[in-house]
Amino acid sequence: MTTSGSYVFAVTRDDLIRNAMLILGKLGEGESPTASETTDCSMFLNMMVKQWMGTQDFAPGLKMWKRKRGEMYLSSTTGQYSLGPSGDNWTNTSYSRTLTANAAAAATTLTTTITNATNGDYIGIELDSGALFWTTINGAPSGTTITITSGLPSAAASGNYVFNYTSKAQRPLQIVTAVLRDVNNDDFPISLLTLQDYEMLPSKTDTNATGDPTAIYYESQLTNGVLYTDIAASSDVTKHLHIVYLEAVQDFVNPTDNPEYPQQWYMALSWGLAKQICPMFNSPWTQEMQTNYFEALTMAREADAEVTSLFFQPGNDDGSWMPGKYGR
């Protein structure tokens, strides 16, 4: 038996548009959509994939291919954080190091290691006051020196931590899990709160009630999401939140853009777009079409269904329910 040895089959935005029009019988052999048809169908395609992203699209899985890991740095002055491309100190990849010499107030140079530190990076310096001061790296680091854009507001002793990252992460659609991570990469559980749970916390805005966060509440909002901790400020800014979250699906902008969906979703995307543009072409949507659409969608959404743990244990002597008897 001879096989191709290839696993990289992919479709583009314009492939999906043409497939959808072929399904509706609106293109003949060798024909292509007009520029106007491509523009209109692209609009429907973008709206559809945005509606299908996250967990709100009837798919039982958690869109694991859009799960990302993010690092959110804490503040000694607030318990509210903006997560997104123009938000607070929130990134997918970050690095840490320590100062190897004291840095005085107003200093614009730091003595430390320079591996994984580049010009323009966001950089946070642990001050002796317990605050984390953020600025940017100004120029390429050299030797053991990093130059920063703004001078330190107060002194930072040798051994204090320094954190840096290059770019901010996207806005989370939904936070799946979170832990509090220290400089030794030890993790501590963080609970996810509902709005009611968070609003009932008695001292969430009391700046005298500082410590390590143990729970968070998140709203996805627009542009940047907003994350609230159960404390008004963090007492140890060398710890940060490590968050697993769902990121938005990227837009279709160019004719050759591939969908940010796995291969098993290509058929569902084609049939889904055909259904969306059907009225635009005054085309009938038959029961056979609906069946094909439903089958394609069902197979796609089951491909990454979430796997959960289940265990059983004996009940009480009287046969009554015990925690864990029928579930996690």
Task: Count the E strands.
Answer: 15
Strand content: 15-25%
Q: Return the string of H and E elements.
A: HHEEEEEEEEEEEEHEEEHH
Structural class: alpha+beta
Mean pLDDT: 92
Structure description:
- This protein is an alpha+beta fold.
- It has 2 domains: 16-53 and 262-328, no CATH class; 66-247, no CATH class.
- It is built from 5 helices and 15 strands.
- It has a 5-stranded antiparallel sheet, with no helix packed on it. It has a 4-stranded mixed sheet with strand order 2-14-13-12, with no helix packed on it. A 4-stranded antiparallel sheet has the order 4-9-6-7, with no helix packed on it.
- Helix 1 (13-23) packs across helix 4, helix 2 (35-52) packs across helix 4 and helix 4 (266-277) packs antiparallel against helix 5 (287-301).
Outline of the structure:
Helix 1 (13-23) crosses helix 4.
Secondary-structure blueprint of this entry?
Elements lengths: L12 H11 L11 H18 L14 E7 L6 E4 L6 E2 L3 E4 L10 E3 L10 E5 L5 E5 L8 E3 L13 E5 L6 E10 L5 E3 L1 E2 L2 H5 L15 E5 L5 E5 L10 E8 L18 H12 L9 H15 L27
Parallel strand pairs: 12-13
Antiparallel strand pairs: 1-3, 1-15, 2-14, 4-9, 5-8, 6-7, 6-9, 10-11, 10-15, 13-14
Features:
5 helices, 328 residues, disordered C terminus, alpha+beta, 2 domains
